[in-house]
Structures are given as structure tokens and as C-alpha cells.
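stage 2 :: seqdesign
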């Protein structure tokens, strides 16, 4: 039993215990939209959707937004130079949807990323006191606007962001996509971040961002983050730094999204942004992923390799077994909260290994300036050690 107190084993067990405590606190304190009383007033909302080559998603997204039971809203979609059938579908929807407006995107200026420029143009066309930015691959329940606006007022928030229910179909999606929800639940003490206004640990999710217009414009909107890969994260941090109120809520009852369709789309999507979340700081990035990999992969490796009579790590069976049990509890909590298939918990070492490889790929692509997204090159950025 003394091996439990070996510094290496102790680090792994304490790391996982901290993660489990954080996950349990988040599980029971991060609220859903439907846990708030209905607001007394419902100001005009502009629902803003950038769309580039979204013919497989745009009709279902827009239809779900137009069906809202909210009294005063508009839906504005910007066609960002699509080369598929996106505009044709939007034009057809326009014929029977007076609340819908469709814009044609202006040429991309130097120094702007494509989606950010599209969202900037959408903001300029909006007439609402509240601005909801959402992605073209999302779907929304009929009471989403009513519930989210009620949550915003109840929380006295200037930005409400929410994690949707992520739909996963292929094995590649099932192995990669759940890591994001797991990471939020395990490593972000949401209520503590909110109370202490820790910008560095705040998480804002671009699939759903509901702003008070005055706060959004006070922080400079998308123009202030026009070259940032993780614009959503930066907008949330700017809200907090500007003295406004940020809230992260559970939107899984009201919003769904198939973020990526297939393994390589997920790899490329995550690869463009993972390193950016760490603000391109090399040592925190490398040490962070090393710690995560060691805590979640080494215990399973230790048990399997000892069972095969070929030990690959000095980690003793007792702390390794405890660490695997803690890991299973952590992943089970995340999969239940984010509504992923329960049986995938057993595959958590594969999810972790794959995401470590994606994280390494993200670092290499950033360092070499080879990252792309939606047929557009992402400019090489400056990295720093700390």
C-alpha cells in the first residue's frame, strides 16, 4: 500500500480525484434553460446564422429557428460565398418566411477570418436588443428562445452560452466529439470561474451565444476578435474583462448539433482550434496534455500490460486500479450529462489517445502554418513559451 504514496502514483490519483470533484459539482450546479422562471418581458431578438456551404444543414436549422414560439424575433442568414446549394435553399425558404432575411456576404477583408467577418456583417444588419449567434448545423426546440432569454434575465447575464446535445453517428465522431464535453465537465469549475471572473478558464461555445446588444458592442464585437481562431472563447473573455456577466448553461434540452460528419472532419475541426484555446502557449499546452495523457492512459496501460505479463510502466496495480475506476466514473458522468451513448465509456482510453494525437497535430499545423478550414487557409500565428 505504500506504493499509493509514491509521488507519481499520488499525482495521478489526486489529479483524477480533483477532476471527479469538479465534474460532480458541475453536474449538479450548471443549470438547464428550463430550470428558470419565465421572463416578464421578451425584447426583440436577432438570430444570426453565418452559412458557408451548408446545404446539408441549413434548411433544418432555419426551419427550427423560424418555428420559435417567441413573440418578437428575426432570423438573418448570411450566405458566405457558398459554392453548393445553400443559397438556392435559402431563396426557397424566403418565399414563405417573413421573419427570414438572407444576406450575401461582402468580400473578405485583409486581417479577418471568414466566419468572424460574416458574423460582423450579421451584427450590422440586426435590429434586436438581444443578439443570438448560432451555427448552421444546429437544431432548436420550439421554446429555445423563450427559455434562453428567460435564463439570461434570471441570471442577470450579458452573455449566455450553452453546450448543445452533440449528435454523433460514425465511430470516428463517437470517439472524438465527446472529449469536449468531458473536458468542460472535468477541468472547468464553472461556478468558481463565474464567481471569481477567471477569464483564462472561461468557456464560450460558438454554437450558441446570446448577448445583450449593448454589452456585445461595448467589447467591440467581432471586430475585436477578427483574427482569433477561437473567437467564441475570446468574446466570452472580453465580456468578463469588460465587467459584464458571463454564464455557461446546459442547452442539451433545447439545442442539438451534429458538429462534424465523420472522423477526418472532426480531426480537422478540432485541430484548427485546440492549440488556440491555450493562447498558443507552448509549455502549458505540452505539460497540460502530458498530465492528462499520463493520468488517463498510464493506469489502463499498467493493468493491461501486467495482465499480459509484460509491464510497460512502474505504476503498481492498486493505484492503477483506483485510477481506472475514477476515470470510468468521470467519463460516465460526462456521457450521461451530455447524452452520449453510455457504452462508449468503456472506450475512453481510445478517445483519450486519439485526442492526444489530434492535439499534437494541432500544434504541428499551427507551428508550420498549414491549418485550413472550409477551403480557407488559416494564417500562421505567433507562438510563445509561457
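stage 2 :: out
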Amino acid at each position: 500500500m505504500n506504493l499509493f504514496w509514491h509521488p507519481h502514483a499520488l499525482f495521478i490519483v489526486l489529479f483524477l480525484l480533483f477532476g471527479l470533484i469538479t465534474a460532480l459539482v458541475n453536474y449538479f450546479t450548471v443549470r438547464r434553460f428550463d430550470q428558470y422562471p419565465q421572463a416578464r418581458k421578451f425584447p426583440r431578438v436577432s438570430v444570426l446564422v453565418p452559412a458557408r456551404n451548408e446545404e446539408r444543414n441549413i434548411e433544418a436549422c432555419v426551419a427550427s429557428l423560424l418555428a420559435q414560439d417567441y413573440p418578437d424575433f428575426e432570423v438573418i442568414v448570411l450566405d458566405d460565398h457558398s459554392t453548393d446549394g445553400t443559397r438556392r435553399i435559402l431563396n426557397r425558404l424566403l418565399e414563405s418566411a417573413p421573419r427570414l432575411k438572407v444576406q450575401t456576404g461582402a468580400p473578405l477583408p485583409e486581417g479577418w477570418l471568414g466566419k468572424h467577418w460574416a458574423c460582423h456583417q450579421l451584427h450590422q444588419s440586426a435590429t434586436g436588443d438581444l443578439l443570438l449567434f448560432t451555427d448552421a448545423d444546429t437544431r432548436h426546440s420550439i421554446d429555445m428562445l423563450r427559455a434562453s432569454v428567460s435564463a439570461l434575465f434570471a441570471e442577470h447575464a450579458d452573455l449566455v452560452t450553452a453546450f448543445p446535445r452533440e449528435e454523433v453517428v460514425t465511430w470516428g465522431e463517437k470517439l472524438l466529439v465527446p472529449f469536449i464535453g468531458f473536458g468542460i465537465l472535468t477541468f472547468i469549475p464553472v461556478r468558481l470561474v463565474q464567481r471569481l471572473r477567471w477569464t483564462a478558464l472561461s468557456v464560450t461555445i460558438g454554437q450558441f451565444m446570446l448577448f445583450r446588444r449593448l454589452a456585445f458592442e461595448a467589447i467591440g464585437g467581432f471586430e475585436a476578435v477578427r483574427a482569433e481562431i477561437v473567437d467564441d472563447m475570446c468574446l466570452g473573455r472580453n465580456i468578463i474583462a469588460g465587467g459584464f456577466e458571463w454564464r455557461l448553461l446546459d442547452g442539451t434540452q433545447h439545442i442539438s448539433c451534429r458538429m462534424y460528419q465523420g472522423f477526418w472532419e472532426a480531426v480537422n475541426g478540432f485541430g484548427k482550434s485546440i492549440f488556440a484555446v491555450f493562447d498558443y502557449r507552448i509549455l502549458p499546452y505540452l505539460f497540460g496534455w502530458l498530465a492528462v495523457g499520463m493520468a488517463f492512459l498510464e493506469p489502463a496501460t499498467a493493468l493491461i500490460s501486467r495482465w499480459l505479463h509484460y509491464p510497460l510502466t512502474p505504476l503498481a496495480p492498486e493505484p492503477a486500479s483506483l485510477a481506472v475506476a475514477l476515470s470510468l466514473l468521470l467519463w460516465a458522468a460526462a456521457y450521461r450529462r451530455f447524452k452520449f451513448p453510455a457504452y462508449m465509456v468503456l472506450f475512453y482510453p481510445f478517445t483519450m489517445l486519439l485526442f492526444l494525437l489530434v492535439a499534437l497535430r494541432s500544434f504541428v499545423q499551427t507551428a508550420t502554418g498549414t491549418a485550413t478550414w472550409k477551403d480557407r487557409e488559416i494564417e500562421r500565428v505567433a507562438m510563445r513559451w509561457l
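stage 3 :: structure notes
- The chain has two domains: 2-26+277-377, 31-164+205-261.
- The longest helix spans residues 282-307.
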